[in-house]
Write a structure and sequence with these properties.
The complex is a heterodimer of chains A (360) and B (220).
Chain A lengths: L1 H22 L26 E2 L3 E6 L6 E4 L6 E4 L4 E3 L2 E5 L5 E10 L8 E2 L11 E10 L12 H12 L8 E4 L15 E2 L5 E3 L3 E2 L5 E2 L5 E10 L4 E4 L2 E4 L8 E11 L4 E4 L4 E3 L6 E9 L7 E9 L5 E4 L5 E6 L3 E11 L4 E10 L5
Parallel strand pairs in A: 8-9, 20-26
Antiparallel strand pairs in A: 1-6, 2-5, 3-4, 6-15, 7-11, 7-12, 7-18, 9-10, 9-15, 13-14, 16-17, 19-21, 21-24, 22-25, 23-24, 25-26
Chain B lengths: L1 H17 L10 E10 L6 E2 L6 E3 L6 E3 L2 E3 L3 E3 L3 E4 L5 E11 L6 E2 L12 E10 L20 E2 L5 E10 L15 E10 L13 E11 L6
Parallel strand pairs in B: 9-10
Antiparallel strand pairs in B: 2-7, 3-6, 4-5, 7-13, 8-12, 8-14, 10-11, 10-13
Classes of the chains: A mainly beta (360), B mainly beta (220).
């Protein structure tokens, strides 16, 4: 009996030692010699506040049957039809003050299906079996009707309406699922990763009491979409026989969204200053360099001007991205370009110009 | 006992220290699992088990329900309707056989009552009801090979997508919608005075098989 107690005590002591050894780094000495300063550089997590549903539902819908969504009045319905893969309305909402770009991964578990459901990345072309061409689609919303408080009763209805509207998905970004054989568990599934941002979520503002007010572009809707064989068949003794879809046919898609602060669109000039001669070296070009960042913005117009307007330089092509600056006299001037982007925002760029015989 | 408890606590601590979530997400990641199940149509069509057909070469008046008919081929009223949740495309297959002891034959074209051979021309016709009420149906005035199926002895004939049957629940105000009922009948004619006279051994057996296919909403 005494021997047994000793054994237990020994086990407890060994376990304790193991715990202490795991925790050892926490107690490591950190003292430094006198006169030295240690500057620690540690990665700081990106503080994000995004609302993402933890679960969702989708349907394998071979005939594209209508799916109804009921609005908050519990009476009005909106519906979608003609989609062979349909999802219940899903959305992601940026509740933070930072504009975020959205990337994602998609993996499909086909192990829950009894009848050989598989995923094919390439477009279907007369495939016989129960193959699904599946993709995650993300569509950013951008309208003032979404720029409301998170408690606004119209918000959910407007999101559902947007989700059911085919026009919403016309410009959606897609992440196709990779090939996944029938009976593949999630751990063994090939993960599809988006190569570029699927959406950019605008910032929200937080009012007193933690109430969120969304921006007009803080929300994106997402869904699973796809194509499949309406009337699958299987080969039995060399003959194709009907193998219709059943309620045992199912899949589970795991989507992981990754959020990063969005890179804003930027414009700059390819030259910081411009030096022109009076007789030689008296004509140069200056160009606007545009980077859309994570946005989908484009440049709408370029408007080049120079101050003073005469006597120093003249401009050729003052409404294009590249302007030619020619000598008209001697002195200094300021070249200005106002760039208007597709969202009607403007950015002003300047470049000092000096005309001097020394630059000939 | 105290040592036992201590041991359990320590083992639990060890477990906690060595366990990590299998698919841990970074602080800027959020995950969602979307369960996909099948949305399949409910196909539920009410079809009469049997229908009576009468060969009436002498155009005798025959009472059926509230009506009196003198056609040479008379069929008792029959219709199908759908309690499905989607419109259905209807295909029809017809197989006919003359009674084994009969010397009649089935003609391949209308007889118009003439001829000395004991022949009957029988065709299958199907129409959707024009309005919410099943009894309102308009039959074609004569045989039309593009729309009807002429029955033939020992031969199965098929016509695909003969009509689309809408669910009876699809109408407004609790009424069935237009075209919710699809009537069918066998019609035709027969030689009035064949050399071998008509008798009670003459008759045909017709098997009508309906195939219902959900109307797809998918557009490619």
């Amino acid at each position: 009996m005494k021997f047994m107690n000793m054994k237990r005590f020994g086990s407890a002591a060994m376990a304790g030692a193991l715990v202490l050894s795991l925790a050892a780094p926490a107690f490591a000495a950190t003292s430094t010699p006198a006169g030295q300063v240690t500057i620690s550089g540690a990665y700081k997590d990106i503080p994000i506040s995004v609302l993402v549903p933890e679960s969702g539902t989708a349907q394998i819908n071979p005939y594209g049957l209508p799916i109804d969504f009921t609005l908050s009045d519990t009476i009005t319905k909106v519906s979608i039809s003609g989609e062979q893969i349909t999802s219940a309305p899903l959305s992601i909402r940026n509740q933070g003050a930072t504009k975020l770009s959205v990337n994602a991964t998609l993996a499909v578990d086909t192990s829950g299906a009894d009848n050989g459901v598989s995923v094919q990345k390439a477009a279907l072309s007369n495939e016989k079996g129960k193959k699904i061409n599946l993709a995650l689609q993300v569509a950013g919303l951008n309208d003032n009707k979404y720029a409301v408080s998170s408690l606004d009763t119209t918000l959910e209805d407007n999101i559902i309406k947007a989700f059911a509207d085919t026009a919403t998905w016309a410009s959606a970004k897609s992440l196709p699922a990779e090939d996944t054989a029938a009976g593949t568990a999630l751990a063994d599934a090939t993960v599809a990763k988006s190569a570029s941002a699927l959406a950019v979520l605008g910032a929200s503002t937080e009012a007193a009491g933690g109430l969120i007010t969304y921006g007009k572009d803080s929300i994106a809707v997402f869904r699973l979409s796809g194509k499949l064989n309406e009337s699958p068949t299987k080969s039995v003794s060399g003959d194709d026989v009907d193998d219709p879809w059943t309620t045992n046919d199912k899949f589970a898609a795991t989507v992981v969204f990754k959020f990063k602060p969005a890179k804003a669109a930027s414009v700059s000039l390819d030259k910081a200053t411009l030096e022109l001669g009076t007789t030689a070296n008296n004509s140069k070009t200056v160009s606007v360099v545009f980077d859309a960042g994570d946005t989908e913005l484009t440049v709408k117009t370029y408007a080049w001007t120079v101050d003073p307007a005469t006597n120093v330089v003249n401009l050729t092509n003052p409404t294009s991205d590249t302007v030619t600056v020619g000598t008209a006299g001697v002195g200094t001037a300021t070249l200005t370009c106002v760039v208007t982007l597709s969202d009607d925002s403007t950015q002003t760029l300047t470049c000092p110009v000096e005309v001097n015989a020394a630059h000939n | 006992m105290k040592r036992k408890a201590l041991l359990c606590v320590l083992l639990a601590l060890i477990l906690l220290c060595s366990t990590r979530p299998a698919a841990a997400l970074l602080s800027n990641e959020r995950g969602i699992v979307i369960e996909g199940t099948s949305r399949l149509p409910v196909i539920d069509v009410v079809v009469p088990a049997s229908v009576n057909i009468l060969i009436n070469p002498f155009e005798m008046p025959v009472s059926i329900g509230d009506g009196v008919y003198t056609d040479q081929i008379i069929c008792s009223p029959a219709y199908i309707f759908s309690r499905s949740d989607i419109p259905l495309k209807v295909d029809v297959s017809i197989t006919a056989s003359v009674y084994p002891d009969s010397d009649m034959t089935l003609a391949t074209a209308p007889t118009y009552g003439s001829g000395t051979s004991k022949r009957a021309f029988v065709y299958f016709e199907m129409q959707t009801s024009d309005w919410e009420y099943p009894e309102l149906v308009q039959w074609d005035p004569a045989y039309n090979s593009a729309k009807h199926i002429a029955v033939a002895d020992g031969v199965t004939k098929t016509k695909q997508n003969i009509l689309t049957l809408r669910p009876i629940t699809e109408g407004e105000y609790g009424l069935p919608p237009k075209n919710a009922y699809a009537w069918f009948r066998l019609a035709g004619d027969a030689a009035r005075d064949p050399t071998s006279e008509w008798n009670n051994k003459d008759g045909i057996r017709v098997t009508v098989a309906f195939t219902f296919t959900p109307q797809s909403y998918v557009t490619n």
